[in-house]
Write a structure and sequence with these properties.
Keywords: Cell membrane, Membrane, Symport, Transmembrane, Transmembrane helix, Transport. The chain crosses the membrane at residues 12-34, 94-119, 140-161, 181-201, 208-228, 302-323, 350-370, 399-419, 425-442. By secondary structure, the chain is mostly helical. Helices cover 75% and strands 1% of the residues. The protein contains 20 helices and two strands. The chain has a two-stranded antiparallel ribbon. Helix 5 (61-72) packs across helix 11 (197-225), helix 6 packs across helix 15 and helix 17 runs antiparallel to helix 18. It is globular and about 65 Å long.
């Protein structure tokens, strides 16, 4: 039954919605992500030095970007890419690029709307995300509550249990560690980070994401450059497989293209999360910013996650398998580990294991903030309506925090096949209210008109 619901929710129609809204925003912006690349690059990475001038203790734009990357860079960059190449062939990478280019504008739109409609609660903390612009922009608070509920469920499943399970399994496979021991230690470390609030989460993400991603990219480049003579042929196979000239007259070729498109697009969406609305929540704590600037940071995150990290993983796999990932006999994380180990030996396997654990940990702390924001919003609305007061109390304060920590520990010691599918279902359902808002609030999404290299900041 659950599997059937999963197939219905994540059917082709949802992928069409994801891509359709991204295409509309791409056209509306005049292909901003491509045409104005120098501008948005300087407004994001190029503006990091200026953040040194911001008030000490404030959450910076770069920190929110790292927190958002912590939520998106994860198992999808290692497992998802390998699965896409195995099932869809080299052409899947091309369609991942396409999904990323389209998703950049979806991420921009939802993040911009989030900053535009955000507000401070009674404690002076920002409340931001699709639930806010569903309520204040579309004037449909019930949709905001529905989105918040789905977000909380995803945080307890995909955000905590699934990620901690990956860490425990990796430790058990690599070092023979007992899941219970890993669970206790991991839960303790997560506790130390999340009890510091968004400030500490942002601070840890700011240090963890660049270091872990940097090391992974460095070793990926070592493997790729060791096969530099294969690179032209690999890229030729990517484009040839994605756009086979005989597709119009060959059913087999047409089937091959459809599989490349299906797996490339779906894994791209899974990896960068553009369209789910999560980036709108994670950027909400940034100070001294504008909706347009945070939108461009969201664009950068999709670019970094899919165009850079996923591409490097794909090139490592294609170089080490001669462009035939399906013929290697491996899939998922095992395929990625196998390819790194072919060039780096035992170090390659340890590298993939370490990357999996660091990426998963970063996702855990980022998704705590996502779930905490959604639970706070939902609790406040339930209290206002005078219904489900017990549930409102559970969602408020530290109750959700301890519930989340319990999910982290449980994920280490339990089998999670059902949790995986349920979390995927919640993920898909979470996207629906957000996509509806992106459609109906389209007129409110504007794009920067500044000159190349001009850095603009402001208060919101």
């Amino acid at each position: 039954m659950i599997h059937r619901i999963h197939e219905l929710v994540w059917g082709p129609w949802l992928l069409v919605l994801f891509l359709g809204i991204g295409i509309v925003y791409t056209v509306k912006s005049g292909f901003f992500q491509i045409r104005r690349l120098p501008y948005w690059w300087k407004m994001t990475i190029g503006s990091i030095r200026e953040e040194e001038l911001e008030e000490e203790g404030a959450v910076t734009k770069f920190q929110t970007a790292c927190t958002a990357l912590a939520a998106t860079i994860g198992t999808g960059n290692i497992v998802g890419v390998a699965t896409a190449l195995t099932a869809g062939g080299p052409g899947a990478l091309f369609w991942m690029w396409v999904s990323a280019a389209i998703g950049m504008m979806t991420g921009y739109a939802e993040t911009m709307l989030g900053i535009r409609y955000r507000y401070r609660d009674k404690k002076g903390k920002w409340i931001c995300g699709p639930m806010v612009y569903l309520e204040r922009g579309m004037h449909m608070p019930w949709l905001g509550m529905l989105y918040s509920f789905f977000c909380v469920m995803v945080s307890l499943g995909m955000g905590s249990m699934v990620q901690s399970n990956s860490i425990a399994e990796t430790f058990q496979y690599t070092f023979g560690s007992r899941p219970e021991v890993v669970g206790v230690i991991l839960t303790g470390i997560v506790f130390l980070v999340i009890f510091g609030g968004i400030g500490r989460i942002a601070m840890v993400s700011e240090r963890l994401v660049p270091i872990s991603a940097g090391i992974y990219m460095l070793f990926s480049m070592v493997v790729i450059m060791s096969c530099y003579d294969q690179i032209p042929a690999i890229f030729a196979s990517i484009f040839h497989d994605a756009l086979k000239p005989g597709a119009a007259v060959s059913g087999a070729a047409g089937y091959g293209i459809s599989r490349s498109l299906q797996y490339g697009m779906s894994r791209g969406v899974f990896s960068n999360e553009a369209g789910l609305g999560s980036m709108a929540i994670l950027h909400g704590a940034a100070e001294e910013t504008t909706p347009e600037q945070q939108g461009m940071w969201a664009m950068f995150e999709v670019f970094f996650d899919t165009i850079l990290i996923c591409t490097m993983t794909a090139l490592v796999i294609l170089c080490m398998t001669g462009g035939d990932a399906a013929g290697s006999g491996y899939d998922g994380a095992a395929l990625t580990a196998y390819c790194f180990s072919k060039r780096l030996g035992g170090l390659g396997e340890y590298l993939v294991s370490a990357a999996m654990m660091l990426f998963a940990f970063a996702t855990i702390i980022a998704w705590y903030y996502l779930g905490r924001q959604a639970s706070a919003y939902l609790a406040e609305r339930l209290k206002e309506h005078g219904h489900f007061l017990l549930l409102s109390r559970i969602l408020r304060g530290k109750a959700y925090t301890f519930l989340y920590l319990g999910a982290v520990f449980l994920g280490c010691v339990a089998r999670l096949e059902t949790v995986w599918e349920l979390s995927d279902i919640w993920n898909g359902l979470m996207a629906l209210p957000n996509i509806a808002a992106l459609i109906f609030l389209m007129k409110e999404v504007t794009f920067p008109k500044g000159k190349e290299g001009e850095i603009q900041t402001g208060k919101n």
